[in-house]
Amino acid sequence: MAAKSPILVKTTSSASYLPFRNMGCVKELAESSTLSSIPSHYVFSTNLEDQVVTEEIPIIDFSLLTSGTPDQRFKIVQALGKACQDWGFFMVINHGVPENLREEMLEACQRFFDLTEEEKREYADKHVLDPIRCGTSFNASVEKVFFWRDFLKVFVHPEFHSPVKPPGFSEISSKYSKRTREVAWELLKGISESLGLEEHYIDNAMKLEKGLQVLVANLYPPCPQPQLAMGLPPHSDHGLLTLLIENTIGGLQIQHRGKWVQVNSLPNSFLVNTGDHLEILSNGKYKSVLHRAIVNGKTTRISLAMAHGPSFDTVVSPAPELLNSESNPPAYSGMKYRDYLELQQGNVLDRKTCLDRVRV
């Protein structure tokens, strides 16, 4: 599907500058020549010394899903289902998105964060449903402890938006958004089949033609006391699937069977996690995965997440085809995706507290 013409948005409300005026961005703080310890409002009290293990993470060969033999496709669909059920996370290889496009996208994100604070304020906005906003931490307006992270969030589908600066960002992000959207939608076809549903069930039920796709760029600068700070706390994502890439600096950890697993991505792979709305649609068979971002004391980490969700107006509830009044009753109540997104993004980020609100 062809990308729509960019809508270049500038925000001008003085209220939008509040988080920057009060605390500045982490990048600016980290680059201060006088910084030797982190301010007290960045000290994360949760124990970061939890046991972290290394395990083999499921790997999905995308080419077998799209161009394999019927037997190969059947096996990869089963592998997709097992990864969603056992992990809520997998790596995708042979996806067809050019490596140079991925690198250009990460470089474009770096250029955005390298803009002056005055230039970045142009895109700051306090409302979570604005199509372009940048800021620091997660939701600085309600948080008591801030996270060691700056971000840019852009709605790129069904209507394409882009910041005006830096030059070239719009063109690169348009190409990248289209290619990752194609990968996500093909994965959702396979996931739909793995649930015993028709291939296009999720596509049709979630109205993906008008589905929300959000580009989320994250900057985690070097931290002088990384053992005390957190890039992002344990949380699950809204939506159906999130596709993530990062520079060569790892920092993603996922929770699996009560332990934190350090994710080491394969070259040119996508890291994919299931979201809250896939958990709701599958009536809990495929659970969204808790994950967190840690920081380090030496190098800047950049990650780029592409979140894929239903259309804003879709009321997401368990698929009726998967329910049984006696053995498998509905475990979640329906909620419009727009309302869920506003609820999650407008509050403190804390594990699955938003999803808990729609549990029956």
UniProtKB/TrEMBL annotation:
SUPFAM superfamilies reported for this sequence: Clavaminate synthase-like
Annotated GO MF terms: metal ion binding; oxidoreductase activity
Highest taxon, organism lineage: Eukaryota
Pfam families attached to this UniProt entry: 2OG-FeII_Oxy (PF03171), DIOX_N (PF14226)
Gene3D superfamilies reported for this sequence: B-lactam Antibiotic, Isopenicillin N Synthase, Chain
Every Fe2OG dioxygenase domain range: 210-310
Family (UniProt): Belongs to the iron/ascorbate-dependent oxidoreductase family.
Name of the protein described by the UniProt record: Fe2OG dioxygenase domain-containing protein
Taxonomic path: Eukaryota, Viridiplantae, Streptophyta, Embryophyta, Tracheophyta
